[in-house]
Amino acid sequence: MAPQPEQYDPADKPWYAVFGPDDGEHHWQPLPSRGYVTLKLTPEEMPYDTFTCGTQVLPPGCHVREHTHPQNHELVFVYEGTGRLTLEGNTYDIEKGSMALFGRHASQMVENTGDEDLKLFFVVLPPGLENWFRGLGRPREVGQPMPEAFERPKDIKKLMEKVGVAPPPKK
After folding, report:
1. Which residues contact 132 (CB under 8 A, 6 or more apart)?
2. Integer Cα distance of 76 and 128 in angstroms
3. Model confidence over 76-121: pLDDT tens digits?
């Protein structure tokens, strides 16, 4: 692991971080995503305030609802599984090694169309999406079996406004 951000002095020494596969802050996700998100680096854990990154696991048949990020860019890299990405109405098959950049306001949806988990690495610039996963999900312990499916919080619109996630524009 890395030195704590409050111990970092850029004039003193470089800062670094190394994470194992199970390291990070984990959150189960509600329907229709299910699966979980692992936050690897957020501004709270590092001396940088320009990005957040982590991983997301989408089980077969699950998807991330269509949405936009008015305040963020998101870079996504597929490191396992297969699926479909819908970006601004255009559909793309994605597989291990695929990468996509969603700019601000770009309508996006990710679906797992395969028989195994779809695993994504993401970087969000500037940070903020970490608070979406925290507010939307439920804490997860490594090795814990997937809980019964659960719905989004009732105050989802308030959470969306707070963290800068928006539904897709009406067509």
Report:
1. 159, 163, 165
2. 16
3. 999 999 999 999 999 999 999 999 999 999 999 999 999 999 999 9
Ordered by where they begin, the domains of the chain are: 24-142+149-163 (2.60.120.10)
Residue 2's pLDDT band, with cuts at 50, 70 and 90, is low
Detail the DSSP E strand segments found in the chain: 25-28, 36-41, 52-58, 63-67, 73-80, 82-87, 90-95, 99-102, 108-112, 118-125, 138-139
| Whole-number Å distance between alpha carbons of 72 and 60 | 27
The candidate with the shortest Cα–Cα distance to 131, out of 69, 59, 62, 66, is 69
The answer to whether 159 and 135 are in contact (CB under 8 A) is yes
**Backbone dihedral angles phi then psi of residue 51, each to the nearest 5 degrees:** -160, 165
**Which pLDDT band, with edges at 50, 70 and 90, does 164 fall under?**
confident
What stretch of H or E contains 163? helix 156-163
